[in-house]
Amino acid sequence: MWMLENAFLIPLIPAISFVVILFFGKRFIGADRVHVVGITALGLVWVLSAVAAFQWTQRVENPPPDAIVQVQHHGDDHGDDHGDDHGDDHGDDHAAASGHSGDGHGDGHGGGHSSPLIRPVISTFSDWWSNAGVTFAVGTFVDGQTVLLLMVVASISLLVHIYSTEYVKGDRRYVHYYAFLSLFTAAMLFFVMAQNIIQLIVGWELVGVCSFALIGHWWEEKPNTDAALKAFLTNRVGDVGLLVGMIVLWGTFKTFDIDVINTLISTNPGAHHFALLVAACCLMAAVASKSGQFPLHTWLPDAMAGPTPVSALIHAATMVVAGVYMIARLYPVFYEGFSIGTSSINLMAFIGGFTALIGAGLAFAQWDIKKVLAYSTVSQLGYMVMALGVGAWTAAIFHLFTHAFFKACLFLGAGSVSHAAHHTFDMRKMGGLRKDMPHTYRTFVISSLALAGIFPFAGFWSKDEILLGSLVGQENGYPLMLIFGCAVALMTAAYMTRVIWYTFHGEYRGHGHPHESPKVMTVPLWILAGMAVLAGAFNLPGPVLEPIGLEGLAHRIQTYAEPSVYLNGLGLSHPDPSLNMALVGLALALSGILITYLYYWRRLGLHGLTERNRYARRGYTILENKYYLDHLYNDVVVETVKRPLAKWANRFNQNVLDRTVNTAGETARDVGRWVYKWIDQGAIDGSVNAAARGADSSGEGLRSIQSGKVQNYGQLLFGAAAVLAIVFVIVV
Amino acid sequence: MVAQNIFFGIISAIVVISAVRMVTTRNIVHAALYLVAVLAGLGALYVLLTAEFIATTQVLVYIGAVMVLFLFGIMLTKAPLGNVMEMTGKQWPIAIVVAALLGGVTIYSLLNRFGSDRLVTDGPIYRTADVSDEVFSTYIVPFEAVSVLLLAALIGAIVLARKD
Amino acid sequence: MLLNQFLILGAVLFSVGVYGVLARRNGVMVLMSIELMLNAVNINLVVFGVQHGVVSGQVFALFVIAVAAAEVGVGLAIVLLLYRNRTSIDVEDFDLMRG
Amino acid sequence: MEALLAFSRPALDWHALAPELTLLAFGTLITVVDIIWDDRSKRAMPTLAGIGLLASLLPILTLAVDGSERTMFGGAYVVDDFSLVLKALFLISGYVVILMSVDYIRDGDYYENEYYTLMLTSLLGMVMMSSSRDLISVFVALELLSIPAYMLAAWRKGGARSNEAGLKYYLMGVFASAVMLYGMSLVYGLAGSTAFEAIAQELGSGESNPVAILGILFILIGFAFKVSAVPFHTWAPDTYEGAPTPVTAFLAVASKTAGMVALIQLVFVAFPGRDDVVQPFFWLIAALTMTIGNLIALRQNNIVRLLAYSGVAQGGFMLVPFAVAADAPARAIEAVVIYMAIYAFMNLGAFTVVLAVARKTRSGEIDSYGGLFQYAPGLAVAMTIFLAALAGIPPAGGWFAKFGLFRALLDAGGGWAAGLGVVVAVNTVIAFAYYARILVQMWFQSVPDGDERPIAIPGSLKAALAVTIIATMAFGVLPGLVGHFGEVSVLSALGG
Amino acid sequence: MEVTGFDTWVLSLAVFLPLVGALVIMLIPKVYETELKLVALGSSLVALVVGIYIAIQFDYGAAGDLQFVVDKGWIDVINSRYIVGLDGLSLPLLLLSLVVVPLCLIYSWNHIPDPGNPKAFFVLLLILSTGMNGSFVAQDMILFFVFFEIVLLPMYFLIGVWGGEDRRYASLKFFLYTLFGSALMIISFLALFFLSKDASGELLQTFDMRVLTDAAGVGIIKSTQVWIFAGLFMGFGIKVPMFPFHTWLPDAHTQAPTVGSVILAAVLLKLGTYGFVRIAIPFLPEGAIAWAPWIGLLAVIGIIYGALGCLAQKDMKRLIAFSSVAHMGFVMLGIATLTDFGINAAVFGMIAHGLITGMLFFVAGSVKERYHTLEISRLGGLLKSAPRMGWILGFASMASLGLPGLAGFWGEFPAILSAYNPGAGLSEELFRVYMVIAAIGTVLAAGYLLWLYQRTAFGEPTEEFAGHEIADVNRDEWIAWTPFLIGIVLFGVWPNLIFNVTDDVVSGITASVEAIAAGN
User: Fold this and answer.
1) H/E element holding E80?
2) Chain C interface, mutation test: which of D181, D196, D235, most C Cβ atoms within 10 Å?
3) Reduced to 3 DSSP states, what percent helix, strand and coil does chain E have, rounded to the nearest 5?
4) Confidence of residue E483 (pLDDT cuts 50, 70, 90)
5) D181 Cβ partners below 8 Å, 6+ apart?
6) If phi over 0 gives left and psi between -120 and 50 gives alpha, with beta otherwise, what is residue A133?
7) Is residue B145 part of a domain?
8) Which chains have at least 3 CB atom pairs separated by less than 8 Å from chain D?
9) Is the separation of the CB atoms in B35 and B70 below 8 Å?
10) Which residues fall within 8 angstroms of residue D419, CB to CB, at 6 or more apart?
11) Which residues, in sequence order, are CB contacts of E101 under 8 Å at separation 6+?
12) What does the pLDDT read at residue A574?
């Protein structure tokens, strides 16, 4: 278990890499070779993360005695029906915290695996700071959730490092690019293994800064810097929520320690409900900004101004899931604060679902391939948040896991396309690339299928779990979330089909001759595509595996990653796998593809008809009719529903939300100018200066007393004597 | 007592009228002469108050020395003897107001405090020798100081007034 | 005789002196008016000395007379000096310095 | 005959009178030397006068060592620690003024020998003032110090401004003494004695009556004139501007201090029970003096005139403790004495710099100080120290003086005292505004005509500068030095 | 702690060595310029070495107690003594002051601003140094006052002689404001002197800060405490500067020469906040409790207001100056909560703000030197023209906006945090509102700093400077800046370096305040 206790090495390595690259890169290594440092470091990180992951699984499988929470069996009467015992368990003891282990949920846990409550590995290192006589340590907190993210971050970061050697080759700031990639990785890893909420804040902000720096990587162009600023400032707005929320947590529990906070809540659920609600609401603001949730999502599409590998790493796979990760990490807070267990709708679920919906809708209206992917990311992040909002903790993390791979693959694929197609991301200037770029095309399609949730790709499994979670919920289902989820499933498939159509099919509409990217780019694509296929295997439901006798491998993520040591105390339950739900989800995705396919295919046909007149077959009457229907569908349904809706949504997004953000900045500046001009310079400084002028002019006035004539002086002398005398004689 | 009162009345009338004339006359030499009248009248009052040495000094120093000084001053500055120069400035109303206020409050206070207190007439009478005893014992330091003062005034006045 | 007879005479003389110094433009006249004020003081001193039956009033008056003589000498010297330099003894003329 | 026999020679304590006598002797000596050697003696005169002043300090030292309080003439003349401290202060200030005068008087068209005679005479009056404890002594001392000063103000015979300065000073001085004398006559009339103790008994115990109020008020006004308190200050700017600069320094420091000394004696010895008149009077006068002095100073362009108004305002600061004379007598006396001591040096220092600079620029305009730091950094730094002291900024001495005021006010406590404290605070700020104008010229501006020749400073001026700088800084860094004198003077003044 | 031998001297040495240096320089003729500079640097470095010695000898286990105490007679007549001593509150600030001055000297080595005259410039800096050092170790109110005031004139001249266009106005304004505050402050000191009583009701009549801290305002009734506190509030609040007494600051900073701004920001402003923590609160707990809501209010107004002011600025230096108003608002908010967290954060914030804003002013000064303008609209592309400087500016901006992991965060976050649970029975609702406002202030801080950064560092250089060769950070600048940069990172990464030192003192202060609050 050495690695778990010394997990601090993992973020330390890229941090050192950052320092080395930044300060010694140019001089001692050579500006064009700094990637060696970064890749080496990331390789190490990956290995160590893998070791950590392995050790964690060992810890779960063969828990050392000190890793298991002592279970107080107050009786084995916890029935199978979760709904019942949930009510019972809120007694004066913490039976709930322990009672859900093992076979109490035999069915619910799929495969009947008994999961003891494994404590996270917490190592503290030093007195980081102290106050009021109490010292606060810095440390690492490693559990399944941590190692899962470690693996995600390390893998994708490593691949992005490799991919970038070609993608940003010859860039004006190659050194800085790699330095910040390293720093970002370090910050993200630091965030992931935060032992206390202060570390969470630190990591949270540091990744934000790296994001800022990398979005603004090409800072010579104003739009890039605007985007960087927007990203940072929007995140800052959310950070208000983060700060306040964390402070509320501190004020409630008088500790920053995540473990302590979670344990306190899970052992005594129901207490501090209001404080937790406030904290959860505040933290939701932070999540909204960092993870691109409505209404603070607008920075994320703009953030595509950064280099594409950065988008893949930061704005798709890792940083943007920080919000999701934070919710998952402090899940008891949200669970209790939003009463997820008992409600059938709550703020988090709604925001998540709504974000997923609008993200998906907006993805239709984009011509920039990266923006489509960005909105897709928004949408998928909304999915994850929604999952957390409905109590499907594992589903959310599972989706986070799968999404990281296929979305990174998509972004890198888009980068590859752009690399080939003269650095444009405008889909109108692409088309027909499948022939020139077979590897990119294939990986892109695989990832798209994964994203669309087509069996058996990774996305299918995770999305299915989310939909299932919405359907079942905890005590109540979340019907609205289910509707949102289904709609998004359909739309996702549709817009991804559109992207593929525009990018890879049809005729090439750009300049020059597109070509496949070199291996250094395609290999990472293939690795990621592989993961897009396989990642789903990490949490397969039991029924799928039973036929092949591998039910022991079912629900690995749930088993290893879920912090049941906290969640069980809350009474979190897991829904049984449902074939029907899976089929519905799949059907929706397929129909999305189909509709879009038909739509664009028809357009192709129209084009083709005029162009390929000679070899077009006759007898298209039926198809004509179909066209007519299609036309009807397109003109009536799509044009009146989809387009206007999408347009409206886009307009709302651009004109209201986005402008609000922009105008908030402008307004602040205007207010600042006004305050400065009128209040500061006018009123406050003005009054000071007026006082000075008043003194000056009264001095001038008083000089007239000094007429120079001695008899006037005499008058003053005797007059003053007389007046004083009169006054004193009368008064005294 | 009546005689003294009558004497006081006559003398004080002379003094006040002369004083007023002095500050209002347009002829500077007349003014000097009115001042002589005032000083002389006061000398008489000192006699009435049994202050013989003061009365003597009043005559000797003031009328004898100071007035001569003034007349010299008038002559040396060739002050117009007639009303060629406006003797009273334009601000005389202010001067009147100030003087009246000052006089008013003083007189009010005196009346308020001393009311109709009678002057002690049967007190000890101090002769010149008593005065000199006092000067040369208790007030020896101020006396010497006055002598220095007069010397200094003399030296300084000579320096200032002499033609270079 | 009332004490106030003398005191009020003094007060009147003093006020007249004040008027004199404030209203008269001729420097010598101003000096003469000062004498009025000082004599008013002397009346007070002497009469109070009598009232209290002490000699210090007279002594004080004596000092006042002596100092007044010195003052007059100095004052006339200054007036002469001015007259020599400015050929004027009008105190209203002397306002080179003001403000 | 009877009278002659009755006369008993007063017991004179020669030791106690030794400072005055020494001073008198040197004054006479100068006159005699002048008469005998006339112009040939010119060069020796300043030296002689200086030696005279220093020699007079010797008996003060011996008296201080002796330490016993000596009272003569039934309390009319007292030599105690308070008077010794002030006598020393007068003599040292006088010495500095003489240092300042040496070259100024020699280079200008002045009567030299008589100048020093009058200076010594005036100082004699001041020295006498600090021991006087009866009306006649105070009156004579006042005239003894004033009358030579009137003449000194007019000493530049050929200068119209100087003449005018003399006239204004003289006339206003005489007006004020007339008022004061009238007040004294009233007070005497009530008390029947000229001795302060008797007056204190009579006035302090008796119930309020208008004559007493009038008497006290008029006397205080007489001295308020001397310390140039508003509205009796009008002479000061004109006289300061017109008079020869060393004389101005003398008036601004020694003469003002003498007025303060008299006020202390009157307020604390003669009228201790009459705080109903004294405190409001000084509250009003102090507030007016500080404020108006400072405000007008803001608009001055002539440095001497600016320093004059500054002096007016400083006088106002000195008057502040009188406003709590009855509530915190010890602190008040201490505050005034400390203020006077520090003020003497810082103000004399400022005038010394003015003298030195005027040797080159021949101008009193503030603009003529432009770029002083560039060609005469020493003078600029010296002036900065003095101005900082005047403004009350540590570590230059003035802060402790202001501190003393605040201490007295807060010791007394109460709303009125605190209110006056705030007035002082505000005035401190206003004051710096015009001191800063000089600083700005010296440091921030360039030399007006580009003439950057250094200034030749004669030895005596250097000595004066050295004395004043050292004293100003020493009082600021080790305020205990001056504080000690303040403390000892309190005990005796209140005890006596 | 028994202080013996050399240790009785060290504090005085650290305080007065620069002054000795200044006196020596005064004696050296102007023409020996290098010698002058060496003496100046040498004396300040020796003082720094003494400071380091102090830091090493300091007993961190007893950081709450005064150490190296020297108690000698000074002004006996007013019972004021020369008492210097050092505890955990003073130590970091003293070191900050000791470090900043030599760095400023190095920075100025070859960049004496117009109109030159290094002799006077260095003398003033050294005198300034003595005043600052002294203020942080003085344990007698009068001594404190003297040191507090000593800094005024040198700074006045630094601004007035070596400042920008409008230097006369700015310097005078700086001076008059501060003078007014200190005049009221001394009144309050005296009131403390006369009114403080010990536990048995005896009048103390002392200026000894140790005694007055122990007395904790016992025997002064609340209404009086409120008034006295008001005086102190003016004195210290103007120095901080708190809204609405801040208007001298932008002018002073804008006009001051670079090192003047740096010292002003790094150390001088801290005198005010230090005064609150060292004097106002412990001496007058009840007054502090009564004033705390108002201080908190002004602090959060300052935070928002300073930020808005920044957004309106067209001049880089003025913007940084306004940011000081906002940052000191956080410090004051921390103090106003009267909690350990808040006051510790405030002390941390002082150091952090000193380093960060000092750094920003350094950069601004160097930019001004190179571009001869600080008008934001004329700048641009600093990262391109002088990449290292651009980096440093970015780094300092990030630190300034409170990025976790850098020093600024530790001043801000615990201060905001402390407002959640204010001490001494203060209204929680009110302070929680303050907390939220302060948190919003962090957004604005990011806004103006990034906006500044975008306009100055990003993009291409403006046409005006496109062809110009802009020198990057030179050797002097590296030497002067590196300690700042290291400090920002070091304290950001390991804040306990400061918290650990200050916590004991602060706990003592808040404990007494709490005790008073509990007694009511």
Assistant:
1) strand E80-86
2) D181
3) 75, 5, 20
4) very high
5) C37, C38, C41, C64, D139, D222
6) left
7) no
8) A, B, C, E
9) yes
10) none
11) E18, E44, E47, E125, E126, E128, E129, E132, E263
12) 78
Per-residue model confidence as pLDDT tens digits over E104-118:
999 988 888 878 888
Supply the pLDDT for residue A261. 87
CB D19 within 8 A of CB D59: yes
Q: State both tokens at A415.
A: 């980068």
Q: In chain C, how many domains are there? A: 1
Confidence (pTM): 0.88
Question: Is C15 within a domain?
Answer: yes
Measured in angstroms, the CA of A234 and the nearest CA of chain E are apart by 9
Q: Which helix (H) or strand (E) element contains residue A123?
A: strand A121-131
Mean model confidence pLDDT for chain A: 77
How far is B101 from A121, CA to CA, in rounded Å?
A: 97
CB A184 within 8 A of CB A211: yes
Domain of residue E234: give its range. Answer: 7-519
* pLDDT in the model for residue A655: 65
Dihedral sign for Cα atoms in the order D239, D245, D246, D249: positive
What's the domain count of chain B? 1
Confidence category of residue B75, pLDDT binned at 50, 70, 90: confident
When pLDDT is averaged across residues A417-442 and rounded to a whole number, the result is: 78
| CA atoms of B115 and B158, how far apart (whole Å) | 48
- Given a cut of 70, whether residue D319 has pLDDT beyond it is yes
Chains C and E touch (3+ CB pairs under 8 A): no
- 10-49 in chain B: CB under 8 A from chain C: 12, 15-16, 19-20, 22-23, 28, 31-32, 35, 38-39, 42, 45-46, 49
Share of chain B above pLDDT 90, in %: 41
Asked whether the beta carbons of residue A711 and residue B99 sit closer than 8 angstroms, the reply is no
Average of per-residue pLDDT values in chain E: 88
CATH code assigned at C45: 1.10.287.3510
- What's the helix, strand, coil split of chain A in %, to 5? 75, 5, 20
User: Is residue E375 situated within a structural domain?
Assistant: yes
pLDDT tens digits, one per residue of D228-264: 998 899 999 999 999 999 999 999 999 999 999 999 9
Is residue D73 within 8 A of residue D12, CB to CB? The reply is: no
Cβ atoms within 10 Å, residue E475: 10
The answer for C 1-40 residues in CB contact with A (under 8 A) is 18, 21-23, 25
Whether chain D lies against chain A with 3 or more Cβ pairs closer than 8 A is yes
pLDDT of A618 reads: 40
Q: Is the predicted pLDDT of residue A75 greater than 70, yes or no? A: no
Residue E1 included in any domain = no
Range of the structural domain that residue C50 is part of: 3-93
Q: Which amino acid, one-letter code, is at E347?
A: V
Alpha carbon distance E338, A2 (integer Å): 44
pLDDT given for residue D495 in this prediction: 56
- Tens-digit pLDDT profile for residues E441-451: 888 888 888 88
Q: What's the DSSP call for residue E28?
A: S
When pLDDT is averaged across residues E459-466 and rounded to a whole number, the result is 80
State the complex-level ipTM. Answer: 0.86
Between CA D339 and CA D347 the distance in angstroms is: 11
Across residues A344-371, what is the average pLDDT?
81
* Residue E482 lies inside a defined structural domain of this protein: yes
Per the domain annotation, does B21 fall within a domain? yes
In a domain, E286, yes or no: yes
What backbone torsions phi and psi does residue A257 show, to the nearest 5 degrees?
Answer: -70, 120
**What is the phi/psi pair of residue A544, to 5°?**
-70, -35
pLDDT tens column, A201-218: 888 888 888 888 888 888
Does residue B160 belong to any structural domain of this protein?
A: no
pLDDT value at residue A102: 37
CA dihedral (E426, E428, E433, E434) positive or negative = positive
